[in-house]
Amino acid sequence: MNNVPVTCFDDWLKDSGPVALVIREHLMPVEGEDGVVFPATFAASEDKTFEGGYNIDVFGEANVCLIDSVGSQANRIEPVFAKNGYSVLVPQIVVTAGEKKINLLDAGHRAGDAIVRCSALQENLRSAFKADLNGDAGPLARIAPTSLVFGVWDSRDTQCKRPRLIASTIRAYDVKKLTRSAQYNPATSYVDDELLEDSGGDKKLKDAHAERGFVHVPASGSHGGIIATGGIRRDATLHLAALRLLDAPDKDKSKREETLALRRYILGLALTAFTYSPSGYLRQGCNLVLDPEKKREFRAVYGDGRREDVVIPTAPKAAVTHALALDFARAAAKAYEVGKDREIPFDKELAKKDISGDAKPPTSPKPARKRG
After folding, report:
1. pTM, two decimal places
2. How far apart are CA 316 and CA 333, in angstroms?
3. pLDDT, tens digit (0-9, with 9 covering 90-100), for 220-236
4. CB 3.0-4.6 Å disulfide test: which of 30, 107, 258, 291 passes with 250?
5. Is 283 exposed, middle or buried (CB count within 10 Å of its CB: 0-12, 13-18, 19+)?
6. 33 Cβ partners below 8 Å, 6+ apart?
């Protein structure tokens, strides 16, 4: 379906449309369903209630292990909009910092990140966030539209906060936790061969020998992955009810026309991201594929609890694929007129002012958000 009409998903943008789209995928390690998977590891909490390592929640005899978090999944999906075939959908904002060039799509806090806040875009972004607080998401969509898809919080300035439209998480169920041990052996005995002096009880020197690989170093009982006896599953949600809150009044067009164009544009980006699978190679020891024995679910969920297979509203027999979503996104982006690409330098002086607090404008009462 090459020429996807920009109106084909308008029923989803109506209040009578589904409140969300949900995807449920059953995954398995490339080694097989009983293969060992290495989940993400996390640092210990300050109060030590969580000692660090794998995030495993226990419920009686059952447990659930976090394989990839919402934030991690977003960080895997959002940069796709910098790739060929996708980059035309959003403005490419690149900040030069020394010898590095950082795309806004790779910035951890997106439009609220220090890398772009301390650049020539500072005032533009501040104005865009303030406009959003007043119910106009248009200016932010012209600069950083993916921030409206994956969420943003301008926590260090205007306090403008936008929820995630897309949430994706991978979890493993009823897991068995494994450990592993290893032993490093140096190429020769440096001390016995008189190539190095004996540490002589000097802990600092002994640690240095170990760190630099001059002595035997055992590593026992470290994280060895998990076996998911209850399976691995990715659950993803696209919150259409939240998307329908986006508003974009414009003095040159009717409020309805501009708002509809904005919502179609953001829906195109969200649907493209939503149908892009972020599974596969996640990290060393964690390469996941679809389980061929279990059906993938893609449902539209309505306010009254109905759950229906996702199809194009204007063509009920046509499934919504990633290719179709991308075609729709291109049509919606063309109709909305995507913001301009920019390459701007990181501003050291703005960074100094930001740290000292001098870059922050006087605070004013936070306006109530208008709802479209």
Report:
1. 0.85
2. 24
3. 767 889 999 999 999 99
4. 258
5. middle
6. 231, 291
